[in-house]
Amino acid sequence: MKTLLSTPLHLVVLGGLSLFGAPAAAQSGPFSPFAPFELRVNFQPASAPVPAGFVVDSGQVFGSRGNGYTYGWSADNTANTRDRNDPNTPSQAYDTLIRTQNGGNFTWELAVPNGYYQVRLVAGDPGYTDSDYRFNVEYYGDVLKGTPTEGQRFFESVTTLDVNDGRLTIRNDSFAVNNKLAFVEVKRKFGVDVNFQPASSSPIEIYGFVSDNGLAYGNRGNGFTYGWNVDNTANMVDVSYDIDILGQRHARMQQGGDYVWEIAVPNGVYSVSLMAGDPSTKVGAYRIQVEDSVILSGIPTGYGFTHGSGMVAVTDGRLTVRSAPGAANNKLNTIRILQQ
């Protein structure tokens, strides 16, 4: 979905207004409540020794592997597993591999709850350099790419991305030549996109956002717990202006009080992206802080919107958003939160 600092992002531009958002296609289901998920999969012949900490993929068709996980290939790919037994490889995980373009165009999938994941891919072959590695993950192109040489046999990438259909998918890029995968590591990350709007406005399903309607902090019944320090429903606005739907909806943060928004998150470091504005008026000085850092600051001009992003640390189980000193008529349209 994204490039937030170092992570992938799709940038949606509608009506001249740049917005951070998912591809223009509805999710097949909502993001699941956050729960830890971590898996390391080694691609290898079934008879080869299994590296410590890994589960085995030996090229079988997608299905339950009997180890608590469901994963596999678009077609039987068992004939393309290799164990090189090269004494110069860093470990057994690097010594084994699977070819993903030999005799077909093979795609690998792993069943996961919808959400954000950090994916580490390692491609390579200790014995051969006759490849041009290019792998796509989900709808992100060239997540891993590299051309091996005698001096560099392996390439790897670490990418944070979202899964919307219950399966994390790895496929060959159209420019790949003799693609080979050594192993993959998948780790769930906390992530959510929230838009602020009246309860009477329809949910923004096309972007995959969850909605905040101004309620006081509590369990929203969608797997997340978030809300305001006091009821703020009267300040949720949909101006119905002729502009992108995310831009026409917002929460007023200073009308009749000083409203603070929080969301329950695991303690850790987060990248946060905010959009503030109102296409019907440019009166205000937007200054919003997340935790102790001012993430967004600007005077509305043009279409009337200001964007901001940054990194924050959470140590009390709640990520907190409030008006920063110097703010006037603060408004908040969207927030993206992604664990690092």
Quickly describe the structure.
The chain is mainly β and 340 residues long. It is built from one helix and 30 strands.
Describe this structure in words.
- This protein has 2 domains: 35-189, Galactose-binding lectin (Jelly Rolls); 191-339, Jelly Rolls (Sandwich).
- The longest helix has 4 residues, at 92-95.
- The model is unreliable at 1-29 (pLDDT under 50).
- It has a 6-stranded antiparallel beta sheet with strand order 5-6-9-14-11-12, with no helix packed on it. It has a 6-stranded antiparallel beta sheet with strand order 19-20-23-28-25-26, with no helix packed on it. A 5-stranded mixed beta sheet has the order 4-3-16-10-13, with no helix packed on it.
- It is mainly β and 340 residues long.
- Helices cover 1% and strands 45% of the residues.
- It has one helix at residues 92-95, and strands spanning 11-14, 17-20, 38-43, 55-57, 63-64, 70-73, 81-83, 96-99, 108-111, 115-124, 133-137, 140-146, 154-163, 167-172, 180-181, 183-189, 191-196, 210-212, 218-219, 225-228, 236-238, 249-252, 261-264, 268-277, 286-290, 293-298, 305-314, 318-323, 331-332, 334-339.
